[in-house]
Amino acid sequence: MLRRVLFRLHWLFGLTAGAVLAVVGITGALMAYESELSRALNPGLLTLPAREGSPLTLPQAVVKARAAMPERAVTFVTMGTDVTQPWRVWYAWPPGQHGTGSRGELRLLDPMTGTLLPQPRGQAFFATVRLLHRTLLAGEFGKQLVGACVIGLVVMTLTGLYLRWPRRIADWRGWFTIRWSRSERIRWRDVHVVVGTITLPLYLLAALTGLYWTYDGYRAAAQRLAGQPVRVTAASALPRHTRHKSHEALDDAALTRVWNTFSSTATQVSTATVRVDAAHNGRAEIEWLPVDARHERAYNRTDIDITSGAVVRNERFVDKPALQRLLGSVLLLHTGRYFGPLGVVWMLLAASMLPAFAITGWWLYLDRRRRARASTRSRAASVSQ
């Protein structure tokens, strides 16, 4: 009875969530190599020529960015020590408009001259792919639908593992054998279950990390489990009058104090992201990546008082507890980059297989229906004779 219930649950989720998961898988596969594809499409833009001289300071960069688009507020700036890499500047969305980024509209800035660079080719395409991956281009409803289907993926992987559990668990042939010489139905079933077994850990990892951005309660529970304060992500591009009163704008003098303090206290900085449109409780928040960072999300955090220029918080990624470091790496776990280039390849292949699971699952379901109807007609014919 349990096996029958789990089997029906497995194919029910597969038939209903399969199409959505196929879209999520295809878009996820594209997103896995977004950085590499963007650099290939923009060789002279995302990699600038090496030049002599010193790059701009934070106050100088903000002045240049504000002058380039005076009608828009600068919200965040990401600066780097490698002057061949453009800096990133985010502008608040115009009134009545809100794009895909919570920080605002992303633009690139030449670190030597402060000139805004042209929009990279493919940027709009990948923005649409990300939105399709997260919301199916259907807003909050699409986001919740994707979340429900991701939960369905967890159910399918666990029920599928139970249903195909071999009698002899230590016999590897029972896990990975595809009987190519048998009937078409058996071959398709073997392909479905063997590939599902291989990709099962990757699907569980992608699903459990993907839910982190879908449900606030899930994210809060993970943060509590890791022993860190529950942080509510605020839309940085909200109009200034909608922000909390504890948020104060950083003027040029405050930016200078903040930058002077950060430059004198932080060492071996690779990149630094500064929120320049507001300071929470009088503090400027800076996330920065050291040169010897374990990975691209291993951010240190420094909070600086905008009035006195004193450091009020200095948090290093390597000093965090293991669960907090893991939680800080959730995006890399989701994409496979946490495990290096090979991890990205494996996650890419697993994501690409989701449409194949939808197709084989439907084929097996329709084949069962066809054989059931044939069996019913055969019994009816026997009774009539």
TrEMBL record:
Domain of life: Bacteria
InterPro entries: PepSY-ass_TM (IPR005625)
UniProt cross-references to Pfam families, sorted A to Z: PepSY_TM
Swiss-Prot/TrEMBL keywords: Membrane, Transmembrane, Transmembrane helix
Presence of the UniProt keyword Transmembrane in the record: yes
Membrane spanning residue stretches: 12-33, 145-163, 191-215, 344-365
Protein name: PepSY domain-containing protein
Source organism: Trinickia fusca
